[in-house]
Amino acid sequence: MDQGVTASRNGALLVVGDVVTDVVARHRGPLAAGTDTAAVIRTLPGGAGANVACWAAHAGCADVRLLGRVGADAAAWHERELVAAGVRPRLVVDPEAATGTVLCLVDTGAAAERTFLTDSGASLRLDSADWSEGLLDGVARLHLSGYLLFTEPSRALAEKALAAARARGVPVSLDPASSGFLVDLGVDRFLAFAEGLDLLLPSRDEACLLTGLPDPADAAAKLSRLVPLVVAKAGADGALVARSGTVLARIPAVPTTPRDTTGAGDAFTGAFLAALLAGATAQEAAERGCGAGAEAVRRVGGRPPHAGTGG
User: Fold this and answer.
1) How many beta carbons lie within 10 A of that of residue 110, not counting itself?
2) Torsion sign, CA atoms 300, 303, 305, 308
3) What residue stretches are annotated with the Carbohydrate kinase PfkB domain (predicted)?
4) What is the tens place of the pLDDT at every residue in 185-240?
């Protein structure tokens, strides 16, 4: 099923994925071992799946839905933030686990690179019982966060959602999410799941890891022999669009000065999917994605602005 050129079906985008609390600590220079390092610290809503949904709504998708799992400790806050961002959340409240938390250490130097310490908590305790066929009613595209593949219960949910979407003819996309977790999962297991996808949105490093090829263009081309459309995100180098073993377009990044690169890939993905749903070509959608990525890195945290938030 090749839905990559245009996928305007006047329907909703359903995102299934992680909803977490981000604690963003922005520091300058190396961390000082054994003593204090001055930092600016903020607590913000995050999670790759939730971020993608918010950026899709920000990019103009009128009906964005999100299935995720949170703890009772922060359920009301996360729901309010998602609704304010234009997303229709369906949050399962976990009776045992707390909401997932990610500590984002952001070096405020020129590259604004970040390191994550992750406690997945409730976010990856989604399981197949949380899925229902009705979730696909009115849905024109399903997007899965790659984090779902990294625990057995949430992987079972992802497999169930993928099968249900394919049975209805709904195209499915996935963002691999984490090269570190991909190594733990195993490339072969990931690629076996990816065979059922219509669209794969890896980072440059993830594409190279999944193929064993050092060149991102070669990696994207190889992956597009497995998945009909592959869009490799390359940060300051823009993005690559590949189909059927060939790189069709190289999209330049939008020049900007980064403050925090957290969520830049999620911003790209959300804007890309929104553009596809509006009828854009894959190249046009990638241009929109690069624009959203540039907007994201100018902000602290992984979400777009909405009423009541600052920069």
Assistant:
1) 8
2) negative
3) 13-304
4) 899 999 999 999 999 999 999 999 999 999 999 999 999 999 999 999 998 899 99
Which residues, in sequence order, are CB contacts of 31 under 8 Å at separation 6+?
Answer: 37, 105
Q: Global pTM?
A: 0.91
Name the residue range of residue 125's domain: 12-19+46-99+121-297
Number of structural domains found in the chain: 1
Residue from 20, 12, 140 nearest 87 by CA: 12
Axis crossing angle, helix 204-211 with helix 187-194, rounded to the nearest 10: 100
In a domain, 160, yes or no: yes
What DSSP letter does each residue of 184-225 carry, written as one string? HH-HHHHHHHHTT-SEE--BHHHHHHHHT-SSHHHHHHHHTT
The Cβ of residue 298 has, within 10 Å, a number of other Cβ atoms equal to: 14
Q: Which one-letter amino acid corresponds to residue 253?
A: A
CA distance 176 to 294: 21
Whether the Cβ atoms of residue 154 and residue 129 lie closer than 8 Å to each other? no
pLDDT at 88 over 70: yes
CATH number of the domain within which 289 lies: 3.40.1190.20
